Amino acid sequence: MGYCLTDLINACQNDWRAYIEHDFVRQLGAATLSEESFRHYLKQDYLFLIHFARAWGLAVYKSRDMTELRHSLDSLKTIVDTEMGLHIGYCREWGIDEESLHDLPEAHETLAYTRFVLDCGHRGELLDLHVALAPCLIGYAEVADWITSHPQTVTSDTPYQAWIDMYRDENYQQAARRERRWLDARLAEVSPRRFEQLITTFRDATRLESAFWQMGLDAAS
Amino acid sequence: MGYCLTDLINACQNDWRAYIEHDFVRQLGAATLSEESFRHYLKQDYLFLIHFARAWGLAVYKSRDMTELRHSLDSLKTIVDTEMGLHIGYCREWGIDEESLHDLPEAHETLAYTRFVLDCGHRGELLDLHVALAPCLIGYAEVADWITSHPQTVTSDTPYQAWIDMYRDENYQQAARRERRWLDARLAEVSPRRFEQLITTFRDATRLESAFWQMGLDAAS
Amino acid sequence: MGYCLTDLINACQNDWRAYIEHDFVRQLGAATLSEESFRHYLKQDYLFLIHFARAWGLAVYKSRDMTELRHSLDSLKTIVDTEMGLHIGYCREWGIDEESLHDLPEAHETLAYTRFVLDCGHRGELLDLHVALAPCLIGYAEVADWITSHPQTVTSDTPYQAWIDMYRDENYQQAARRERRWLDARLAEVSPRRFEQLITTFRDATRLESAFWQMGLDAAS
Amino acid sequence: MGYCLTDLINACQNDWRAYIEHDFVRQLGAATLSEESFRHYLKQDYLFLIHFARAWGLAVYKSRDMTELRHSLDSLKTIVDTEMGLHIGYCREWGIDEESLHDLPEAHETLAYTRFVLDCGHRGELLDLHVALAPCLIGYAEVADWITSHPQTVTSDTPYQAWIDMYRDENYQQAARRERRWLDARLAEVSPRRFEQLITTFRDATRLESAFWQMGLDAAS
């Protein structure tokens, strides 16, 4: 009785698999991804993180009590104090300095996904915001797992290993599990009509994540 | 099965009766209310209407489809195109010109209620906003009914009759019934935990309405 | 002394011309645009209008006084009470019934532009929201003018004439001029640093409008 | 040339002094404040802090770049990770356990001030939010200074010393100075019309702070 995140994923199984096992992900695992694609992705992902941090700031605002507020603040701190730094360091290794990130024009795919998430948050309540954020936070944990377990994955001497390790890292996986528990507790008590709304949000967000991978692939063509 | 607005009212019956049958309302019906109290109330109610209009603008923004959007826009138009004009005309009859309304300092009671409603809207979803608005829109229709049916009510030759008639008017009563139907349809499918949240919102809004009446009474002392 | 809308346009002249004179617009004027492109555009423009209406609802909320609030409400009413109806009627003539519009999946280009505008509104103040909306409201008036005055334009017996006339209509042109005056009055007193921010918003919104045309063209390929 | 925070304070000097030197503050310094007043204030201040934290979450959302975002996040962390804990510990010393804080009904004065600040933030841009927050963050630093330097202040063996020390603490004073610099930099470039808007916001927020002290005093009568 009651819904959970797995029900959301099952309700848009095709879109979810298309995202998790996207060609960008497959090529990244097989170490055949063009560096140009990856570099373009990395740069846009920096802009993505800024709006992602703003979204968690919004989640802090929308919290109904201190428990919810602390949960959102933890995610916000993880992004700004940890991920952002890892990302900037990682970009540097790929020859992208922080200055150049500041002047970067934002790709339409970045705009579309990030502003969609923020609008879900403003229009709906905290749960709508979390559901819109889930394909990113929880999806990346699953992407890292999928790559790791996939037979075609090349595990040594690949330029992408550090990126994969970032999302396989126990801290990250733990944050993803924590978020999943939060969602499961809330989804357990929504009505069927409300669940339909959330499916739409989750599906749109998942598709926008796929489009974000695709943007990376397209940069090389 | 499922909740409705009457359940919200019953859940905070004491606060609701204290609001509907507030001394301000009783004295207004019995035509014993001091004109100073009424004039202070009228002026602050003008400021209230501005923020009330802003709240319905927010409801337009938060709508999930065109049916919801048109419902909110109808309320917004009622306030700005009808009630606002009636109110300004009514103030004029009481010797309060429109210019003086513009420079009016906002009372704490006006600030508290209006900004509370707006925050409910931003923090939650459209339903939270509607529930926070309900004591005003639906409550005033009930206040007008209560005054009318009350044995102590003086019905002729009272300076307050025009005000009472404004809320007994079929157009207003119809808007209140329309809103009640909208709420009943949504409340029917919320979970018990969610209903608890909405009770808190409804009770706080009801108390803030009472404080708004009290502000009127206090102005005369 | 002081800035005006023309300064915003001049600051991103290339992007503005690329939008106003986009191939979609040229082909529409020359009546060489594929009907498939136009139909795709029309359908997405319906979804666009819904979010555009939400944006004007947000503008009502963000207003600082009744003059600003009425200005925003006028635009909101124009969209919902007039344009929306024209659009649905117009879609019908192109064989697109209202039902099919309700189930339409939202293109990334529609998502990107509409949610960008809404985020500009939430993040900044009323002026940021208006600047993000300007390429649409004011741009379409200019697009209609440009088509009309362009030597290659075919003026009789073209399926697109009714669409062009909708934006050449005096009511629409007047709304665009009214908005321009509102913007000119506000831009007159912003600081250079603030103007830089607004240029970025205006440029991004203009590019997203171009991408919206391009989406139409791409639908036919 | 250009405005600064001192200009805001000077523009509502009477309201500012009435707040900084409020009877609640004077009695607190002179150790003549009734414990009932202080206890009521302390409890409501806990609820205040929650909404204050939400306001800084909103500031994170409204930030235009990572520098602004980190500035807001620092304030948010100070409140949630430091002040909140100090406050709960401090309440405990006054016999108020954390459980009882959770069920506390919110006073109108708390509602009025906190929701006013949040609405300033949503309606305007980041600067409006900061200006609405300034009487609290910067005002408390000044209150602590004023108490300390006032000849009637009793400095030993008073139940209020720990509270005063909390705001005299170098960490708190530093946060207040940091915020003042942020405001001075932004105010330097606003137009006279904009500055007028900000004066209204600052004055209203200052008056709402005074009303918050008054609420404490009234609790003992």
From TrEMBL, chains A, B, C, D:
InterPro entries: Haem_Oase-like_multi-hlx (IPR016084), Thiaminase-2/PQQC (IPR004305), Thiaminase_II (IPR027574), Thiamine_Salvage_TenA (IPR050967). One of its GO terms (cellular component) is cytosol. Its EC number is 3.5.99.2. The keyword ATP-binding does not apply. Keywords: Hydrolase, Thiamine biosynthesis. Transmembrane segments: none annotated. It is an enzyme of class 3 (hydrolase). Pathway: Cofactor biosynthesis; thiamine diphosphate biosynthesis. One of its GO terms (biological process) is thiamine diphosphate biosynthetic process. One of its GO terms (molecular function) is thiaminase activity. It catalyses: thiamine + H2O = 5-(2-hydroxyethyl)-4-methylthiazole + 4-amino-5-hydroxymethyl-2-methylpyrimidine + H(+); 4-amino-5-aminomethyl-2-methylpyrimidine + H2O = 4-amino-5-hydroxymethyl-2-methylpyrimidine + NH4(+). It holds the Pfam family TENA_THI-4. Catalyzes an amino-pyrimidine hydrolysis reaction at the C5' of the pyrimidine moiety of thiamine compounds, a reaction that is part of a thiamine salvage pathway. Belongs to the TenA family. This is Aminopyrimidine aminohydrolase. It comes from Kushneria marisflavi.
